[in-house]
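In practice, a research group might receive sequence data for several interacting partners and want a quick structural hypothesis before committing to experiments. The following worked case mirrors that situation: the sequences arrive first, and a predicted assembly follows.
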Amino acid sequence: MTLESIKLFYEALKNTDLSVIERLVKKCLDEQVPPIDILNKGLIQAMGIIGQEFKAGQIWVPEVLLAARNMHAGINLIKPHLLKDKVPSKGKFVIGTVKGDIHDIGKNLVSMMMTGAGYQVIDLGIDVPRESFLRAVADEKPQLLGLSALLTTTMLEMREVLISIRETFPDPPKIIVGGAPVTQKFAEEIGADGYGEDAIAAVELSNRLISQGGK
Ligand code: B1M
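A structural hypothesis for the assembly, expressed as C-alpha coordinates:
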Protein backbone atom coordinates (compact mmCIF):
# COMPACT_ATOMS: atom_id res chain seq x y z
CA MET A 1 0.00 0.00 0.00
CA THR A 2 1.53 3.34 -1.02
CA LEU A 3 1.55 6.72 0.69
CA GLU A 4 -0.93 7.85 -1.95
CA SER A 5 -3.41 5.21 -0.83
CA ILE A 6 -3.00 6.14 2.85
CA LYS A 7 -4.05 9.63 1.75
CA LEU A 8 -7.11 8.13 0.06
CA PHE A 9 -8.03 6.28 3.27
CA TYR A 10 -7.44 9.43 5.32
CA GLU A 11 -9.72 11.44 3.04
CA ALA A 12 -12.35 8.70 3.06
CA LEU A 13 -12.33 8.54 6.88
CA LYS A 14 -13.00 12.27 7.00
CA ASN A 15 -15.76 12.20 4.40
CA THR A 16 -19.36 12.60 5.58
CA ASP A 17 -20.40 10.36 2.68
CA LEU A 18 -20.11 6.79 3.98
CA SER A 19 -20.04 5.35 0.47
CA VAL A 20 -16.58 6.86 -0.13
CA ILE A 21 -14.83 4.53 2.33
CA GLU A 22 -17.02 1.63 1.22
CA ARG A 23 -16.07 2.12 -2.42
CA LEU A 24 -12.39 2.48 -1.54
CA VAL A 25 -12.28 -0.75 0.51
CA LYS A 26 -14.25 -2.67 -2.16
CA LYS A 27 -11.84 -1.38 -4.84
CA CYS A 28 -8.84 -2.59 -2.82
CA LEU A 29 -10.50 -6.00 -2.33
CA ASP A 30 -11.25 -6.20 -6.07
CA GLU A 31 -7.60 -5.40 -6.77
CA GLN A 32 -6.59 -8.32 -4.51
CA VAL A 33 -4.91 -6.12 -1.89
CA PRO A 34 -4.59 -8.47 1.13
CA PRO A 35 -7.37 -7.60 3.65
CA ILE A 36 -4.81 -7.41 6.49
CA ASP A 37 -2.94 -4.70 4.52
CA ILE A 38 -6.15 -2.77 3.92
CA LEU A 39 -6.62 -2.83 7.70
CA ASN A 40 -3.09 -2.17 8.94
CA LYS A 41 -1.59 -0.07 6.15
CA GLY A 42 -4.79 1.73 5.13
CA LEU A 43 -7.45 2.15 7.81
CA ILE A 44 -5.29 2.06 10.94
CA GLN A 45 -2.55 4.32 9.52
CA ALA A 46 -5.16 6.84 8.37
CA MET A 47 -6.83 6.79 11.80
CA GLY A 48 -3.37 7.45 13.28
CA ILE A 49 -3.15 10.70 11.32
CA ILE A 50 -6.60 11.68 12.53
CA GLY A 51 -5.45 10.98 16.11
CA GLN A 52 -2.47 13.32 15.63
CA GLU A 53 -4.71 16.06 14.27
CA PHE A 54 -7.08 15.62 17.21
CA LYS A 55 -4.17 15.88 19.64
CA ALA A 56 -2.92 19.03 17.92
CA GLY A 57 -6.36 20.62 18.21
CA GLN A 58 -6.77 20.77 14.43
CA ILE A 59 -9.99 18.73 14.49
CA TRP A 60 -12.70 18.15 17.09
CA VAL A 61 -14.68 15.26 18.58
CA PRO A 62 -17.45 15.28 15.90
CA GLU A 63 -14.84 14.75 13.18
CA VAL A 64 -13.25 11.92 15.14
CA LEU A 65 -16.69 10.37 15.63
CA LEU A 66 -17.26 10.59 11.89
CA ALA A 67 -13.91 8.89 11.26
CA ALA A 68 -14.84 6.16 13.76
CA ARG A 69 -18.16 5.56 11.96
CA ASN A 70 -16.38 5.30 8.61
CA MET A 71 -13.70 3.08 10.11
CA HIS A 72 -16.39 0.68 11.42
CA ALA A 73 -17.92 0.50 7.93
CA GLY A 74 -14.53 -0.25 6.37
CA ILE A 75 -13.73 -2.93 8.94
CA ASN A 76 -17.14 -4.57 8.41
CA LEU A 77 -16.36 -4.97 4.72
CA ILE A 78 -13.03 -6.72 5.27
CA LYS A 79 -14.26 -8.77 8.24
CA PRO A 80 -15.69 -11.68 6.18
CA HIS A 81 -12.38 -11.95 4.30
CA LEU A 82 -10.35 -12.06 7.50
CA LEU A 83 -12.66 -14.65 9.06
CA LYS A 84 -12.90 -16.92 6.00
CA ASP A 85 -11.05 -19.93 7.33
CA LYS A 86 -12.88 -21.88 10.05
CA VAL A 87 -10.57 -23.30 12.71
CA PRO A 88 -11.38 -25.56 15.67
CA SER A 89 -12.11 -23.81 18.99
CA LYS A 90 -9.01 -23.07 21.05
CA GLY A 91 -10.77 -21.78 24.15
CA LYS A 92 -12.88 -18.97 25.55
CA PHE A 93 -11.77 -15.35 25.50
CA VAL A 94 -13.67 -12.66 27.41
CA ILE A 95 -12.85 -9.08 26.40
CA GLY A 96 -14.02 -5.59 27.25
CA THR A 97 -12.97 -1.97 27.34
CA VAL A 98 -12.40 -1.00 30.96
CA LYS A 99 -14.66 1.31 32.95
CA GLY A 100 -14.74 4.92 31.79
CA ASP A 101 -13.48 4.12 28.30
CA ILE A 102 -15.74 4.07 25.27
CA HIS A 103 -13.11 3.57 22.53
CA ASP A 104 -14.04 0.28 20.87
CA ILE A 105 -12.40 0.11 17.45
CA GLY A 106 -9.21 -1.57 18.68
CA LYS A 107 -11.13 -3.87 21.03
CA ASN A 108 -13.41 -4.90 18.16
CA LEU A 109 -10.39 -5.70 16.02
CA VAL A 110 -8.92 -7.88 18.75
CA SER A 111 -12.31 -9.66 19.07
CA MET A 112 -12.42 -10.20 15.33
CA MET A 113 -8.85 -11.53 15.04
CA MET A 114 -9.35 -13.80 18.05
CA THR A 115 -12.56 -15.17 16.49
CA GLY A 116 -10.68 -15.73 13.25
CA ALA A 117 -7.93 -17.55 15.15
CA GLY A 118 -10.47 -19.99 16.61
CA TYR A 119 -11.32 -18.55 20.02
CA GLN A 120 -14.88 -18.33 21.29
CA VAL A 121 -15.08 -14.62 22.02
CA ILE A 122 -17.41 -13.12 24.62
CA ASP A 123 -17.31 -9.38 24.05
CA LEU A 124 -18.60 -7.41 27.05
CA GLY A 125 -18.46 -4.12 25.12
CA ILE A 126 -17.29 -0.74 26.34
CA ASP A 127 -17.11 1.03 29.71
CA VAL A 128 -17.23 -2.33 31.47
CA PRO A 129 -17.36 -2.15 35.29
CA ARG A 130 -15.17 -4.47 37.35
CA GLU A 131 -18.23 -6.42 38.57
CA SER A 132 -19.15 -7.33 34.99
CA PHE A 133 -15.68 -8.76 34.34
CA LEU A 134 -15.98 -10.75 37.58
CA ARG A 135 -19.44 -12.05 36.60
CA ALA A 136 -18.31 -13.03 33.12
CA VAL A 137 -15.31 -14.94 34.48
CA ALA A 138 -17.58 -16.73 36.99
CA ASP A 139 -20.20 -17.58 34.35
CA GLU A 140 -18.07 -18.32 31.30
CA LYS A 141 -14.91 -19.70 32.91
CA PRO A 142 -12.69 -18.40 30.10
CA GLN A 143 -9.07 -19.40 29.64
CA LEU A 144 -8.23 -15.81 28.71
CA LEU A 145 -9.42 -12.36 29.72
CA GLY A 146 -8.57 -9.31 27.60
CA LEU A 147 -8.68 -5.71 28.81
CA SER A 148 -8.53 -2.77 26.43
CA ALA A 149 -7.98 0.91 27.30
CA LEU A 150 -7.26 3.96 25.16
CA LEU A 151 -6.94 6.64 27.80
CA THR A 152 -4.03 7.18 30.18
CA THR A 153 -6.64 7.66 32.90
CA THR A 154 -8.66 4.48 32.26
CA MET A 155 -5.64 2.22 31.79
CA LEU A 156 -5.15 2.46 35.57
CA GLU A 157 -8.45 0.57 35.98
CA MET A 158 -6.74 -2.47 34.44
CA ARG A 159 -4.74 -3.01 37.62
CA GLU A 160 -7.94 -2.92 39.69
CA VAL A 161 -9.68 -5.48 37.48
CA LEU A 162 -6.63 -7.70 37.59
CA ILE A 163 -6.44 -7.58 41.40
CA SER A 164 -10.19 -8.28 41.78
CA ILE A 165 -10.05 -11.26 39.42
CA ARG A 166 -7.05 -12.80 41.12
CA GLU A 167 -8.47 -12.20 44.61
CA THR A 168 -11.81 -13.77 43.66
CA PHE A 169 -10.79 -16.82 41.62
CA PRO A 170 -8.28 -19.42 42.82
CA ASP A 171 -7.68 -20.49 39.21
CA PRO A 172 -8.00 -17.20 37.28
CA PRO A 173 -7.81 -16.84 33.50
CA LYS A 174 -4.65 -15.48 31.94
CA ILE A 175 -5.09 -11.71 31.66
CA ILE A 176 -3.82 -9.84 28.63
CA VAL A 177 -3.87 -6.08 28.16
CA GLY A 178 -3.59 -3.67 25.26
CA GLY A 179 -4.57 -0.32 23.81
CA ALA A 180 -2.69 2.73 22.54
CA PRO A 181 -1.27 4.01 25.86
CA VAL A 182 -0.52 0.52 27.24
CA THR A 183 3.09 -0.72 27.05
CA GLN A 184 4.96 -3.92 27.86
CA LYS A 185 6.45 -2.11 30.87
CA PHE A 186 3.01 -1.10 32.17
CA ALA A 187 1.71 -4.64 31.65
CA GLU A 188 4.62 -6.00 33.70
CA GLU A 189 4.13 -3.36 36.40
CA ILE A 190 0.51 -4.36 36.96
CA GLY A 191 1.35 -8.07 36.73
CA ALA A 192 -0.64 -8.87 33.57
CA ASP A 193 0.13 -12.19 31.90
CA GLY A 194 0.89 -10.43 28.65
CA TYR A 195 0.69 -7.35 26.46
CA GLY A 196 -0.45 -7.22 22.85
CA GLU A 197 0.76 -4.29 20.79
CA ASP A 198 -1.92 -4.91 18.17
CA ALA A 199 -4.67 -7.40 17.37
CA ILE A 200 -2.31 -9.86 15.69
CA ALA A 201 0.11 -9.71 18.61
CA ALA A 202 -2.86 -10.39 20.92
CA VAL A 203 -3.63 -13.58 18.98
CA GLU A 204 0.01 -14.72 19.01
CA LEU A 205 0.27 -14.01 22.73
CA SER A 206 -2.98 -15.89 23.42
CA ASN A 207 -1.76 -18.89 21.42
CA ARG A 208 1.46 -18.90 23.45
CA LEU A 209 -0.38 -18.65 26.77
CA ILE A 210 -2.80 -21.42 25.80
CA SER A 211 0.01 -23.70 24.65
CA GLN A 212 1.72 -23.13 28.00
CA GLY A 213 -1.33 -24.55 29.71
CA GLY A 214 -4.05 -21.88 29.46
CA LYS A 215 -5.36 -21.32 32.96
CO1 B1M B 1 -10.50 9.49 21.71
N1 B1M B 1 -8.73 9.81 22.46
N2 B1M B 1 -11.31 10.48 23.17
N3 B1M B 1 -12.16 9.21 20.76
N4 B1M B 1 -9.46 8.85 20.27
C1 B1M B 1 -7.60 9.12 21.83
C2 B1M B 1 -7.34 7.79 22.49
C3 B1M B 1 -6.42 10.17 22.07
C4 B1M B 1 -5.03 9.52 22.12
C5 B1M B 1 -6.52 11.28 21.00
C6 B1M B 1 -5.39 12.30 21.12
O1 B1M B 1 -5.46 13.16 21.94
N5 B1M B 1 -4.37 12.16 20.30
C7 B1M B 1 -6.85 10.83 23.44
C8 B1M B 1 -6.34 10.15 24.70
C9 B1M B 1 -5.26 10.95 25.39
C10 B1M B 1 -4.82 10.30 26.63
O2 B1M B 1 -5.43 9.54 27.28
N6 B1M B 1 -3.61 10.66 26.98
C11 B1M B 1 -8.37 10.75 23.35
C12 B1M B 1 -9.28 11.54 24.10
C13 B1M B 1 -8.64 12.62 24.96
C14 B1M B 1 -10.67 11.35 24.06
C15 B1M B 1 -11.75 12.11 24.86
C16 B1M B 1 -11.40 12.39 26.33
C17 B1M B 1 -12.05 13.39 24.07
C18 B1M B 1 -13.05 14.33 24.68
O3 B1M B 1 -14.17 13.97 24.95
N7 B1M B 1 -12.58 15.54 24.89
C19 B1M B 1 -12.98 11.15 24.72
C20 B1M B 1 -12.99 10.08 25.83
C21 B1M B 1 -14.18 9.16 25.75
C22 B1M B 1 -14.09 8.01 26.75
O4 B1M B 1 -13.61 6.95 26.41
N8 B1M B 1 -14.54 8.24 27.96
C23 B1M B 1 -12.68 10.53 23.41
C24 B1M B 1 -13.65 10.11 22.51
C25 B1M B 1 -13.41 9.55 21.27
C26 B1M B 1 -14.49 9.25 20.23
C27 B1M B 1 -15.80 8.76 20.87
C28 B1M B 1 -14.75 10.53 19.47
C29 B1M B 1 -13.75 8.23 19.29
C30 B1M B 1 -13.98 6.74 19.68
C31 B1M B 1 -15.03 6.07 18.83
C32 B1M B 1 -15.02 4.58 19.01
O5 B1M B 1 -14.06 3.95 19.43
N9 B1M B 1 -16.16 3.99 18.68
C33 B1M B 1 -12.29 8.54 19.58
C34 B1M B 1 -11.21 8.13 18.74
C35 B1M B 1 -11.60 7.47 17.44
C36 B1M B 1 -9.85 8.34 19.10
C37 B1M B 1 -8.59 8.09 18.24
C38 B1M B 1 -8.48 9.25 17.25
C39 B1M B 1 -8.48 6.80 17.49
C40 B1M B 1 -8.63 5.54 18.34
C41 B1M B 1 -8.74 4.34 17.43
O6 B1M B 1 -9.82 3.85 17.19
N10 B1M B 1 -7.60 3.93 16.83
C42 B1M B 1 -7.46 8.13 19.36
C43 B1M B 1 -6.10 8.59 18.84
C44 B1M B 1 -5.13 7.43 18.67
O7 B1M B 1 -5.24 6.39 19.28
N11 B1M B 1 -4.12 7.66 17.90
C45 B1M B 1 -8.13 8.84 20.48
C46 B1M B 1 -7.55 2.85 15.86
C47 B1M B 1 -7.52 1.51 16.60
C48 B1M B 1 -7.44 0.37 15.59
O8 B1M B 1 -6.37 1.50 17.40
O9 B1M B 1 -7.69 1.43 19.55
O10 B1M B 1 -5.16 1.69 19.58
P1 B1M B 1 -6.38 1.13 18.96
O11 B1M B 1 -6.26 -0.47 18.95
C49 B1M B 1 -5.12 -1.15 18.48
C50 B1M B 1 -4.06 -1.42 19.56
O12 B1M B 1 -4.02 -0.44 20.56
C51 B1M B 1 -4.39 -2.79 20.04
O13 B1M B 1 -4.92 -3.45 18.88
C52 B1M B 1 -5.65 -2.53 18.09
C53 B1M B 1 -5.47 -2.92 16.63
O14 B1M B 1 -4.14 -2.82 16.22
N12 B1M B 1 -5.34 -3.04 21.13
C54 B1M B 1 -5.21 -4.18 21.87
C55 B1M B 1 -6.41 -2.36 21.56
N13 B1M B 1 -6.99 -3.01 22.56
C56 B1M B 1 -6.29 -4.14 22.78
C57 B1M B 1 -6.45 -5.18 23.69
C58 B1M B 1 -5.52 -6.24 23.67
C59 B1M B 1 -4.46 -6.24 22.78
C60 B1M B 1 -4.30 -5.23 21.86
O15 B1M B 1 -5.60 -7.30 24.49
C61 B1M B 1 -6.73 -7.47 25.29
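Before designing any experiment, note the following. The first strand starts at residue 91 and ends at 97. Strands lie at 91-97, 119-123, 144-148, 174-178, 194-195.
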